[in-house]
Structure formats: C-alpha cells, structure tokens
C-alpha cells in the first residue's frame, strides 16, 4: 500500500468489440488493485468496453523494444 | 414461489403502505444527499482520480434518488418530492449526510457505511413481491457495485497513512456508526417487519445487520479500525449496545442531531 | 380515408422511433435497444423504455423527442411513456445496425 | 544516439511519432511539457469553475449533466498530468504546491460563472475553444502517448459543446435576456482566449514539433466560424460578423479591449495593448485563488492530518 501521491501506475487495456485486439487506452495511478479498477472504469468511460483490464506497470516486462534502454534494464 | 405479485400500489395490504412509504422516502432522500455530498468533492479529492470517482458516484446516487422518487409517486400518502425541495426540513436523511463532509475521510466513511447500508437494504428487495420496487432494484444494485470497491480501497489506503489518520478515521466511524448499523431496524426489523411478512422485503433488522457486519468486519479489522465491533463465531457483532432509545423508526434516523 | 386506415400501427410507431436518436450516441433509440415494449390502442401509443444508466442526463430530452415525433403520426392523439429498469440494459441489446453505425463513426461499442 | 533539434524536427516533419522521453531533445521536451501543462491545468480548473455554477442549477437532471461534464474534464486533466509524470515532472508539486497565480489556464476560468445559464454558455463557448485547440493538437500531435489520450478528449469535448448548444436552443425563448447577458461577456472572453495575433507571435517551434498545427489567428477563426452562426441562428447579438469577400469572420471591435472585472463587462471603446492583456492574465482574475484552493484542499488536509500531533 503506497502513500497518497506515491501510488504505483497501472496500465489500462480494453476491447471494444469481439474480434478486436485488446488495446492500450491509458494509465491510472492507484494505491492498490481495487482502486485501480474503480479509477480505470470512471476515467476511461469514453466507450462501452466489452472488456477492461488494469495491469501493474511493473508487471509489463519488456522483451524487445527499439528503445533498447527499456530491455537492457531487465536483462 | 407461487405467492402472487403485488403489481401496483393498490394491491398492497393496507398496513404495509406507511412503512413502505417511510422506507422508500428515506432511501431516496439519503441517496439524494449522498449524491450532493459526493458531488461537493468533485474537484477537492486528495488525488484527481479520487475526484473523478467521487463525481461518478455522485451521478449514480442522484440517478437512484430520481428512480426512487418515481416509485414514491405511485404510493398513497407519500410526501411530495419535487427535485430540489427535499431539504426544506423534512428530509429523511441520517445526520451523517445532512451537511457537507468536512474532510475526505468523512466521504469514505459515508461511502463505506451509509452507502453500503442502503445497498444492503435494497438487496432485500431484489425478489420483492411488490413489482414496482422489484423492477427498480437490480439496476440500482448493479450500479452500486463499484461504490463498495471504492470505499474498501480507500479505507485501506487511508489506514496505511499511519496512526494519526487511523485515529481520525476511528472518530469519524464512531460518528456514523449508529446511523448505519441501526438503519436495518431493530431485531426482526421493527417497522419494516410487516414488509417482510408479506414478502415486499426478504428480511430486515438483525438478519441484514449481520450480513453488513460480516462485510465490513474483516475490512475494519485489516485496517486496524475494528474498535466498534468484535468477531463472534463466524460473524461479527457490535461491541457496544446500539442506541435504540434514540432511533426514530419512521424517519429512519437518530432523534438527536 | 376511412378512420381504420389512418390508425397507427406498432410497425409504424417503431419506424418513426427509428428517427429518434440518443443524443449521446449517433444511433436511434430503437437500435440502442432502449425500447422494451410498444402498444397501440385507439390512437394512444404506450411505450416502455429503458436507459443505459439511471443517471442518464438525456432522459427528459429523449422523452420529449419521442412525444414530438409520435404526435406527428396520423391518428396518434396521446403518447404514454413508462420507464423500466427491468431487465437492466446491457450491451447485448444493441442491434447489429447500431454496432455497425457506432463503429463507422469511431465510437464503437 | 543523441539527436539535434534540427534532426528531430526533420524526422517529425516526415511523420515520425515520438514515443518516449529518450527520443526527445531538451527543447522538444520543454515545449511538450509547457503545452501539456497548459492543457491539463485548463481541464482541471474548469472542474471547480463548473461545479461552482452547478450548485445553483434548477433541477436534479441539470446537476447530473453538469457532474457528467465535470467528470470528463477531470479525466482529461488526469490524462495530461499522468503523461507529465511519465515525462519526469513532479506532478505532486505541480498540482498541490503551486501558487494559484502560477496555474497556466486561460483567464476565462478566473472569472466565476454565476448561473446555470452561464454554465450552458461556457459549454457552448469555452468547451468549443477547448475542442478547437485540442482537436488541432490531436490531428497533428507528434507525441504518441498524448495523441492517443486525446482521442477520448476530442470526443467528449464535442459532447460538451453540443450540450451547450442544445441548452442554448432550449432556453433561447424563455431566458433570452440572461443568455444575451452571458454571451455579451463570454463571447469576447473566448475570442481573447486564443491569444496574441500571428503578427505578434510566431509558433515556429510548436508547429515544427507538430505539437500545434495552426496559428492563434487560424484557431480563433475556426472558433468564430461555428460560434457566430450558432448565436445568430438563435437571434443573439455577437460582436462579430461574416465578411463575404474574404469568407472570414471579422470582429466588430478592436482586439484587445479592456475588461471590467467587477462588472464583468468589456469596454469595447477602450482598446488596450496585448501587453496590458498579459499583465491582467498574470495578475489572474477574481476566481483564481478560490478555485485553486478547492483543487488543493483535499490533499492539503490529508497532509496536515498525517503530520499533526
């Protein structure tokens, strides 16, 4: 649990219709999974998503990137 | 169940009308007040995300109040609630939501205790025999789902801010405690008992309170804020006797304040 | 023309309602799946409608638009609208036409 | 591999989209941070401004729509500050410790709205300005994360301005005088919002970086092109007209003119210089301190509680 103002970032992914790829729509900062869900839902409400997910940014592990520093950091 | 539905107000047994009017009025007024209170924090939350969530919840509560005021229109003897006159003196709100919340932790306590108490009462109407009530309940409960997640998430975040914030929270919970925990009515429901007897509500009183305490007990314990309740077998009970002498059954609030 | 031929029909009402748009989406209320029931009897149209959320800010506007639209149909002398929340609206209620239309203007559902 | 500013501008000119801070030159980063801050501050300050007006709305339905709009504005601000944070900006200090006068929103939001009518006109005028300005960024933006974030913003600001238009149409018959009064001060306010004319300000860098596609005068013209017909169509007076020869909208007063803050009145016969305008903008208007206080209140209280004995 992080202090207010120091919340970790969650990436937000969503799908609009069946058959479409899940896409990255933005991010939220939240103290934990529960609030990340609430925030994603109330901030990224521009579409009627059929699926909406939050993923802690630290769980997104780079494999390849033209920005090599991102991959090197995890080598 | 083969019991026939009560499809309009005229089909309700006479003795159930006054308690139903009182209950729906109080539900609607409290939701109206919660909507105003949440809305007052739209641009003042401790984070911008918090403000967005409060603004979203405010709209839900106002929407629910509007739906419930619609239900009142069909009930004989119901007070008239034109949209903005409700506060004119006879609002059936609990004291905790009567006035603007002085701090964000107040909003969270209202979210966690008052908002959720109202939702648990609504849940007892999910399969109501009174059709107009039953037809509105599911939508409202669906829209409440994220309010509970919000309240729980923020309580844990605030509690993690340290002992000073926890002691502030503890005092605020004390302020709202009786308002929320008495809201289900005494024992077997008090004034709500006739509604349970004819199937307008599934249950009232202790049965709903137990469910409410089972929901918030573990959460308050994890947050280090469980001074007002204690574990009892597989459930939770209030640590101190509830102030029933001050409870006004028809207005569904404490007499003082 | 004999009165009977001028009486509005359920199909006529639905066709007319296909011209009433939800102000938030460029799609008619019929294609949004907001119209639950339509009844026509003796010049009175009875509608059961739902909305996507109880806090829908367009509820009044949509009902006004419906009245304006239906009262223009020959033979309609009254419109009675009932709002229903049961069953709650879900995205499944969108017609294929609505999905295509929403997709085309970039507000895919 | 470090890139010079000229090389970056050339790549961007060829359609390159910048995706991370590592690809930026210091000048690009500074320009991006500046534009993002103006945008996020503007979205943020509109929340307390609109809310203050929404407290006096005539019905619950009006309050619900005002809150829906406020929720959008806060979400847009959130998107801007999140991107700023990923660029390494201390958004905590930026939002909660900044002096109110240092916020970078337009002066228009420093003048409190007093009624539901003024809120409707704000949606029709101010959100239209936001839509014009951000739509321009959206179509040109060379910074990927912001460009994607603006898809939502573009769509929702369009909804807000339609809400304002519909509101004006509905109220045009019954609240004619109040609407005209609101238009009288809010129309020139929005015209001024677009800033210095092209003759006094160039946007070489911003346009070269594709963080802006059009000049101030072009954007002002875009706004006038829809705002004037809206008002004229409803029979309201506005200090601008269409000129057939040039197919342009022309102001009926010399921009800029003096503004009486207390009376909320433009002194159309008192031309001033843009320097005078900048002085007023820097001094900020009557609502600035109150609105920023509303924005900072919750966080300040939390800090005080944590630190208190």
**CATH architect. name of chain B:** Up-down Bundle
Just give the CATH class of chain B. Answer: Mainly Alpha
Strand content of chain D: 5-15%
Tell me the fraction of residues in β-strands of chain B, as a range: under 5%
Task: Write down the CATH class of chain D.
Answer: Mainly Alpha
CATH architecture call of chain D: Up-down Bundle
Coarse shape of chain B: globular
Determine the fraction of residues in helical runs of chain D and give it as a percent range: 55-70%
Task: Name the structural class of chain D.
Answer: mainly alpha
Radius of gyration of chain B: 18 Å
Can you identify the CATH superfamily of chain B?
Ferritin, core subunit, four-helix bundle
Rough outline of chain D: globular
| Major interchain interface with per-chain residue totals | B-D, 33 and 34 residues
Give the mean pLDDT of chain D.
95
Query: Span from first to last CA of chain B?
Result: 43 Å
Protein name (chain A): Phenylacetic acid degradation PaaB family protein
InterPro entries (chain A): PaaB, PaaB_sf
InterPro entries (chain B): Aromatic_CoA_ox/epox, Ferritin-like, Ferritin-like_SF, PaaA_PaaC
Protein name (chain B): Phenylacetic acid catabolic
In short:
Chain D: This is Phenylacetate-CoA oxygenase subunit PaaI. With 257 residues, chain B is mostly helical.
Q: Could you outline the blueprint of secondary structure elements for this entry?
A:
The complex is a heterotetramer of chains A (75), B (257), C (109) and D (309).
Chain B: H1 17-40, H2 48-73, H3 104-123, H4 131-159, H5 163-181, H6 193-197, H7 206-222, E1 229-232, E2 235-238, E3 247-248, E4 253-254
Antiparallel strand pairs in B: 1-2, 3-4
Chain C: H1 3-6, H2 10-17, E1 35-41, E2 44-49, H3 59-71, E3 78-83, H4 96-104
Parallel strand pairs in C: 2-3
Antiparallel strand pairs in C: 1-2
Chain D: H1 5-13, H2 26-54, H3 60-86, H4 91-96, H5 116-140, H6 144-171, H7 176-193, H8 204-208, H9 216-233, E1 240-243, E2 248-251, E3 257-260, E4 265-271, H10 274-283, H11 288-307
Antiparallel strand pairs in D: 1-2, 3-4
Helix pairs in contact in D: 2-3, 2-5, 2-11, 3-6, 5-6, 5-7, 5-9
